[in-house]
């Protein structure tokens, strides 16, 4: 089972990002992430058999952290705005909390043989670029006038399964891990 951990983004914020996908479309050819699939990934875990999946579920039970706010605003691109392959929305509030949460997830699954994540960059992927976009996309990515998509309180994270199909990825919640108040 292909798996990852993620923070779910509320529907209203995802809908705002879907509107932004439509604004990007005239500037090139894209494979947009389905609005229901937009999320903030904490850690990609790859393909795992049923035994390892159960071990991951159990290990993640020990992750402790308190609820925190996340704000999503503006665009970015991997590897960079001049040669974009992936278009993402930036985390402008809560980025450090996400880094710390990702590190806690890493620590829990490290004992299962997963290597430590080299560099975590909190974001929400909204589109993948196909071919070479026109200069309009670059202008959008570097503009000082960036859209705000919304703010929400992260109350937990999820372990998600991902099945690749010809129509795109199909996600399913494996387990939800609520935030806890740390004494």
Description:
This protein has 183 residues and is α+β, with helices and mostly antiparallel strands. It has a single domain (2-178), classed as Alpha-Beta Complex (Cyclic Phosphodiesterase, Chain: A), CATH 3.90.1140. It contains four helices and nine strands. The strands form two sheets. Strands 2-6-5-4-7 form a five-stranded antiparallel beta sheet, sandwiched between helices. Strands 3-1-8-9 form a four-stranded antiparallel beta sheet, covered by helices on one side. A hairpin with a 2-residue loop joins β8 and β9 (168-178). The protein starts with a strand and ends in a 5-residue tail after the last strand.
Using only CA atoms, what is the Rg?
Answer: 17 Å
Q: Whole-number average pLDDT?
A: 93
Helix amount = 25-40%
CATH topology, by name, is: Cyclic Phosphodiesterase, Chain: A
Query: What top-tier CATH class fits best?
Result: Alpha Beta
Largest sheet: 5 strands, antiparallel
The count of β-strands is 9
Percentage of β-strand residues: 35-45%
Uncertain regions spanning at least 5 consecutive residues = none
Spatial ordering of strands, largest sheet: 2-6-5-4-7
CA(first)-CA(last) distance: 35 Å
What is the assigned CATH homologous superfamily? Cyclic phosphodiesterase
Total count of domains? 1
Order of helices and strands: EHEEHEEHEHEEE
From the spread of the alpha carbons, the general shape counts as: globular
Given helix and strand content, the structural type is: alpha+beta
In brief:
The chain is an alpha+beta fold and 183 residues long. Helices cover 27% and strands 41% of the residues.
């Amino acid at each position: 089972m292909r798996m990852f951990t993620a923070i779910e983004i509320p529907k209203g914020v995802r809908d705002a990002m879907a509107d932004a996908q439509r604004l990007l479309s005239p500037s090139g050819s894209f494979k947009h992430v389905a609005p229901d699939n937009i999320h903030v990934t904490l850690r990609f875990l790859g393909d795992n058999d049923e035994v390892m999946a159960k071990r991951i579920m159990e290990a993640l039970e020990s992750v402790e952290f308190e609820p925190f706010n996340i704000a999503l605003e503006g665009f970015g691109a991997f590897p960079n705005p001049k040669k974009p392959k992936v278009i993402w929305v930036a985390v402008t509030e809560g980025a450090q909390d996400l880094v710390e949460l990702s590190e806690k997830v890493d620590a829990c699954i490290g004992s299962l043989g997963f290597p430590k994540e080299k560099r975590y960059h909190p974001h929400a992927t909204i589109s993948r670029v196909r071919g070479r976009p026109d200069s309009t996309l670059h202008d959008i990515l570097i503009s000082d006038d960036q859209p705000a998509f919304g703010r929400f309180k992260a109350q937990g994270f999820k372990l998600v399964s991902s099945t690749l199909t010809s129509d795109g990825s199909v996600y399913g919640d494996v387990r939800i891990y609520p935030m806890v108040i740390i004494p």
